[in-house]
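Margin note from the TA: students keep mixing up input and output lines. Inputs are the sequences; the output is the structure of the whole complex. Example:
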Amino acid sequence: MSNSFLIILGIITPLFAALFSYVCRYNNNLRDSFGIIGGLVTFLVSLKIFHGIQNNEIFQITFFKLFDGVDFTFKVTALGSIFSLVASSLWILASIYTIGYMRGAGEKNQTRFVIFYSIAIHAALAIAWSGNLLVLFIFYEILTFSTFPLVGHKQNAESQSAGRLYLSILVGTSLIFFLPAIFWIWLETGTLDFQDGGILINQFPAEYLSLLIAMLVFGIGKAAIMPIHRWLPAAMVAPTPVSALLHAVAVVKAGVFSFLVVIVYIVGPEFLLQTKSSDWLVWLACFTIMASSIIAITKDDLKARLAYSTISQLSYIILGAALASSLALKGASFHIITHALGKITLFFCAGAIYVTAHIKKVSELKGMGFKLPLIFFAYTLGALSIIGVPPFIGSWSKFYLIMGSIEREFIVVAIILGISSLLNIYYLLQPVVIGFTQTSRREVKLTKAPLTVWPPVITGLSCLIFFFYANYFLNNVSGVIVI
Amino acid sequence: MFNIFLDDAAALVVVLPLLISAIIAFMPSKIWPWIISLVTLVLHLVLSLHLLKEISISGLIVYEFGNWEPPWGISFKIDGVNIGLQLLFSIFVLISTFYSRKIFLSEIDSGDSGKAYSLWLLAIGSLNGIILTNDIFNLFVFLEISALASISLIALGAGQNRKALLAAFNYLIIGAIGATFYVIGVGFAYAMTGTLNMNDLVIQLAQYSDGQLAIFAGMSFMLIGLMVKAAIFPVHIWLPPAYSYAPSAVSTLLAALATKTILYFFVRLLYEVFIIYPSYLSLFLDFVLYPLSLLAIFIGTLIAIYQDDIKKLLAFSSIAQIGYITLAFSLKDHSGITSGFIHIFNHALIKGGLFMAVGYFAILQKDRVTLTSLKGFGYKYPITSFALLICGLSLIGLPLTNGFISKLYLFQALYTNQMYFSIALVAVSSALAVAYFWKIVEQMWFSEIKLKTEKEDAYIYLPIWIITFSIIVFGIYSSPIIEFSNLSADYLISGYQN
């Protein structure tokens, strides 16, 4: 199979999955199976591309010219191969989980849900493989619009206003900051292509680089840096498969991925290190990490707590990008994988607890650990990985981030990362502690939903297993950094 | 034999619709006026294409009526500036006429069909005259004919809603004031120079040095008159009621073309004639047109957010979009004029498509289209709704639609002129456009009501989809529009240098 064909196949498969789901909308089992099949196909494609990138193959396809210097083109970067692998592999598990959750929770409009779910994956993959900033922007917007029906899925007043907030923040920031920033880059350099080492150096006025970075980090609202984070907790009204795959993996990772891509392939780490234009962002990211951790502690709703934890974890990646040293970038890129694995496990568990025991609040988890041992087991694995305890995969990215901040002589940042880990321990492990230590007099009726239990166990165990195979990913991650 | 017609193509594109209009005025038939209009406009398109061919060979056509030489007789001038607009005009009127039949049938008395199409052709002929004329008094005549025809067409909406009469009356009064301002200005210019021909006017005006108050007064009167007619903020108040109470087919024609033709003449007057007084021109552009454009963009968008009536919402959005065009024209350089023309083309398509779709909804539900009445339409009429969605995304300016191309070039023009504040404002207002457009989408697809899919009329959704399709095509393959706009800017700028 030629390389350009692989790209087309990977991007189109989710669309076909959506189409077939619509065609077979009257046969529930058939309809839902297309998500799994599509996931398998895109996963194999992503894997092949991932290996190809390791062997320095080039994956590129150009469709047509949009305007001077900008084509509608896909080109897989090292960073993109990581993101696509994460999104597509987790899509398989999420599809299985979706079947269990949606039927278990008795949600309506399941066909629409499955269709837009697939379209969102399509957009995420296209973002991962986009060849220039404008193509990335196009699919960034498609991702926003395709997740809107998922956020507002319940169609009650609460989800409607959440959907509005979601859309207005994400589209608003992208149109006010991101798109003008893209125009600005184009006007200064005449191109938007991703190139190793960036395109801005010697082309862009260094004194305005801080402003450009600000426009980008606030324009890419999906990266959820404070104060542009409100949409993420609001989006938690969506059914849990959406929170799990989209708001822990596809959407938010698309955000930080976009920012990372801009830093690595547009601005260029070297240019950033010369001008120190992103040092202010280091402190904003630190603030977001701390503030959202503290908010997370106060949240009793499990999904809201996880949402604030996500905001905090996303800022790790922004922090790594802002530090721009090679170790920090390595950590940031790797954190895309580790956080995705860990957080999807936690969300899967939160949804599984809701479906089987109808509990949403942390304080109501008393004694549930003994009743739902598998779910709590998986949850613990995911939580430990996110906290960064060895031997879990999450410890690698945290290690590199701390090393990166020491390399840049931001000792305070390294300390903040340490404190944040302590806070993580508190708010992520508290549910486990409550679940196993306290007992409740309340009788809880359990519903069986095995399809929601096994996916988190798989992802939780892989957090553990991949700790030993981290080099497999780090090869590609190292390809990201060319300083 | 056909060659005889082609020789006079420049005159016939205006005269033919006017003539046919008189013929069909009293036809009692329901269908013949439409067929005759359609045939007329096909001929009109053929003539326009012929003009395009001639222009690509010679670069300039001056048509002298009755063989009276220019300074004395009336002349039409076709060159790089207006040939693109002429082509767009010709194509769009054909499509909208095709679209109009079922709309007129359900919105006006069937006995009025002849009258409606007579007025329709009258408006088309006179608007086309505005594009072609090279004579400032002749322009006044066309302005008046088009205004009277449009007012009568708007008043035909009274069968649906009596407020159409008020809207028409408003337009009549305000339009008459604008026309009076314009004609007073023409009077001043004529008194000072003794000429009405635009090319001659430039030569005659050159003999007055800066400081002739009478000339400046005349110029100001003309510009203000045209601003009223082009609905530039704050003299736009006639436009929203006129667009929203007119029969749907009429709103389509007016929204897509009426203000655009006047804007075209406005910019031609500025950069071809008034450019010989650079200090006056930059005074007007920098301190009148530029701030007013920014206000139009911002206030038009804000008001649109709070509209419940969809046609009114689109009308206020038009005010903002006209603001984008005049903002581009106020930049005084090639990139600005180019981006202004690009947006004239693109916005004509976008707004035309939007009004067509909303107009169809209006006749389907036989009532005004409001936000609440749109509930569930995405499922009920998917074909038209989807077209509306694409046109709306283009209005916001998302990539792969022609609205994005407009935005790109506007940003570029503003950037080269270092107008960073305007860039910020344009960016913010394009984000606000999401607010008013998404309200519509939300009602259509995401309200709790789910309606069964109903059959849609191919005679209506076909033209809508032709427009929608062109919106996507010009978003991807934008060079035709950009080249025509570049050509217009080239001609205007080079005229200034000569």
